[in-house]
Design a protein that fits this description.
The chain has 351 residues and is an alpha/beta fold. 41% of the residues lie in helices and 15% in strands. The protein is built from 14 helices and twelve strands. The strands form three sheets. A six-stranded mixed sheet has the order 5-6-7-8-10-12, covered by helices on one side. β2 (61-65), α4 (72-79) and β3 (82-86) form a beta-alpha-beta unit. α3 (44-53) packs parallel to α4 (72-79), α6 (118-131) packs antiparallel against α13 (313-332) and α7 packs antiparallel against α10.
């Protein structure tokens, strides 16, 4: 499966931009467009028209460039799913762009990560476009619908079939809550499983956050984790354990910690450390203030499982760093450290 390069003329054509094979699957995980060529040889009106054309359904599109977009190219980069810019300082780039050492290598990294998950990649990019434009509560509904749909997909089934479930290891309580004068200390407390985000932990965290919503005398909340890492992401043994994906959707909406945290975000500080994976950064990103200890790493791994971020990340992370860099993290599976996370706005403080 190759990565096709589209031209501006193809973007302007009235035909469909969703490229499917005979079985109805995407013919390629994504396509590229060379923004340097667009800059050099395209009429400004055509570039604007191409950006508008990307409002209709299309295969995920990645821009490539050696220079940051300028003029009408800015609108085109905003319409793409992400843009890779070679050899530039990231602080000089807009949120639509990701600085990479070598564009060709980065394109191959995306290809390698997505060639087995084209349905998931397409769903991710479509979901990010919607959640970035919606209020938080509505964005979480869209994310949950997409995540639940993918639980019934062949790409998730393939991963689940290769990843047998282990015996459950329940730990109670998984969340410790301590009132400290005017504040509340909330601690994820299953270090033996690196604070894997299980149903029990989810329910305990939601209960604590709902208490904060009810009790206005709680002036501040500090959320942290025991052991070597704040949270290593969802408990993989629970993924897909509910057969009815519609039921899974409703449970996710009722018991989602993201919407509970969003409701009290101004009072919450999250302290990250260790490997914060999946839910381990998706949920904290809702808080008003996120600190990361030196050496912290952040990663979104769900795409390799045939899923998209499902703990609120398509909503919370996009609000901090934009849908383009969120797409890069999710598709590439790249880990970033606290320095890059702070430069992007994913965390607010290192310490």
């Amino acid at each position: 499966m190759t990565v096709p390069e589209l031209t501006l003329t193809e973007l302007l054509s009235p035909g469909p931009l969703v490229l499917l094979d005979a079985k109805g699957r995407p013919a390629a995980p994504f396509a590229c467009i060379d923004l340097d060529r667009v800059r050099e040889g395209s009429a400004e009106a055509d570039v604007h028209q191409a950006a508008q054309a990307l409002g209709r359904p299309h295969v995920p599109l990645v821009g490539t460039a050696t220079q940051p977009p300028e003029g009408p190219g800015v609108a085109l980069a905003e319409a793409l799913d992400l843009t890779l810019v070679q050899g530039k300082q990231e602080e000089s780039l807009p949120r639509t762009c990701i600085a990479v050492r070598d564009v060709a290598e980065a394109v191959q990294q995306l290809r390698s990560a997505t060639v087995a998950r084209p349905l998931t990649v397409a769903t991710l990019c479509q979901t990010l476009r919607l959640t970035a434009a919606l209020p938080v509560a509505q964005g979480l509904v869209v994310e949950s619908l997409a995540y639940s749909m993918l639980l019934a997909s062949e790409e998730f089934a393939e991963w689940r079939g290769k990843t047998p479930r282990r015996e459950p290891r329940y730990h109670s309580p998984s969340v410790l809550v301590n009132r400290n004068e005017a504040g509340l200390e909330v601690l994820l407390a299953h270090p033996a499983r690196r604070n894997a985000y299980s149903r029990e932990m989810r329910d305990g965290l939601v209960e604590a956050l709902e208490l904060v919503a009810w009790d206005s005398s709680i002036e501040w909340v500090r959320l942290a984790g025991q052991g070597p890492t704040f949270c290593s992401g969802g408990d993989l043994d629970e993924f897909g354990s509910i057969d009815d994906v519609a039921t899974a959707h409703l449970i996710r909406l009722r018991q989602g910690a993201g919407v509970a945290l969003e409701g009290v975000r101004d009072r919450v500080t999250v302290q990250l450390h260790g490997a914060c994976i999946g839910a381990g950064i998706e949920i904290p990103a809702f808080a008003a203030h996120v600190s990361a200890a030196p050496g912290t790493t952040l990663r979104l791994p769900e795409l390799a499982m045939g899923l998209i971020p499902g703990a609120g990340g398509t909503v919370s992370i996009t609000r901090r760093i934009g849908r383009w860099r969120t797409a890069w993290l999710a598709i590439s599976g790249t880990s970033i450290g606290p320095e890059r996370a702070r430069a992007w706005g994913l965390v607010d403080e290192i310490g």
